[in-house]
Amino acid sequence: MLDIKHLRTLSALRDGGTLVEAARRMHLTQSALSHQLKDLEERLGVSLFLRKTKPLRFTRAGLELLQLADQVLPLMRQSERNLQKMAGGHTGRLHMVIECHSCFDWLMPAINSFRDHWPEVEIDLSTSFHFEPIPALVRGDVDLVVTSDPEDNSEIHYQPLFRYQSMLAVANQHPLARQDNIKPQDLATETLIHYPVDRKRLDVFERFLAPGGVEPIATRQTELTLMMVQLVASGRGVACLPNWALQPYLDAGLITARSLGESGVWPVLYAAVRKDQADAAYIQDFFQQALDTCFQNLPGIAPATQ
């Protein structure tokens, strides 16, 4: 009657505090999560939590299962790792390249956790400011690329991580801050600040400006997200960044963010690896740890399949 996925779901519900957040952490839609919980309660014949309380409260039955989850889930995960190591594939190399230059904050905890569980795997990390990462992955120079721009290549496996919204950051006093959303032509008179990479790898050009046939009046490059935000806040230009990367600065009231178009621009972030490495135990475990970390820590993201 009771499945391990039920324990994971209840744990995510407790840690997230709401059905919406639990669904995000489990990489499910809210309706799929609600159906799973309702089915479990019907099979057990008890209610597991009170649905209209804030914060969310568990019943005695729910607390009983949470206690079980806290005992079982860590043991299950460690046993899975041990079995994977017994089966082979416990040593290797994981040299990573980040195309998403705002990803360091959430990727570092995933790397630290991975290093604790796979000490035999050699880890390295760099950005792709000065070279093309996918050709380097194919050559074997690197082993994993975090990217939102998958290329059609039969040698590469793309593991979806999550969807995020690309948003335009503007100064609080900027006229665009008074608009509900941004149109491509709104940027024709703006200085667009962006990372020093080819524009085909930037969402604001490829997914927003190019389809509209619009070119900003000027551009400016910087490698640092914080510097980008400071330039925007001081009225030196506008910048397009992921919603979760902007959130701390929005919370601090430093800038304003607006949607690109009425529906927004929602790319998917991927972890790219060579197909001949995709099934390696340590690669699969890194995928899972990266997913768990980003859904625990990043506001505003959504399951890649949604």
Short recap of the structure:
This protein has 306 residues and is an alpha/beta fold. Helices cover 42% and strands 20% of the residues.
Q: Can you walk through the features of this model?
A:
- With 306 residues, this protein is α/β, with parallel strands linked by helices.
- It folds into three domains: 4-85, Arc Repressor Mutant, subunit A (Orthogonal Bundle), CATH 1.10.10.10; 90-163 and 267-297, D-Maltodextrin-Binding Protein, domain 2, CATH 3.40.190; 166-260, D-Maltodextrin-Binding Protein, domain 2, CATH 3.40.190.10.
- It is built from ten helices and 13 strands.
- The chain has helices spanning 4-16, 19-25, 30-44, 60-86, 104-117, 133-139, 203-212, 225-233, 243-251, 281-297, and strands at 49-50, 57-58, 92-98, 121-127, 144-147, 156-163, 166-170, 181-182, 191-194, 218-221, 238-242, 256-260, 268-274.
- The strands form three sheets. Strands 8-12-7-11-9-10 form a six-stranded mixed beta sheet, sandwiched between helices. The chain has a five-stranded mixed beta sheet with strand order 4-3-5-13-6, with helices on both faces. It has a two-stranded antiparallel sheet with strand order 1-2.
- Helix 1 (4-16) packs across helix 2 and helix 2 (19-25) crosses helix 3 (30-44).
- It is globular.
* Gyration radius, in Å: 22 Å
CATH topology of the largest domain: D-Maltodextrin-Binding Protein, domain 2
The tally of beta strands, per DSSP, is 13
Main pleated sheet: 6 strands, mixed
Name the poorly predicted regions: none
In N-to-C order, the SSE pattern is HHHEEHEHEHEEEEEHEHEHEEH
Q: Can you identify the CATH class of the largest domain?
A: Alpha Beta
Q: What is the global morphology? A: globular
| CATH homolog superfamily of the largest domain | Periplasmic binding protein-like II
Q: What is the count of helical runs? A: 10
Level-2 CATH architecture of the largest domain: 3-Layer(aba) Sandwich
Which structural class do you get from the secondary structure elements? alpha/beta
Biggest sheet, strands in spatial order? 8-12-7-11-9-10
Average pLDDT score: 88
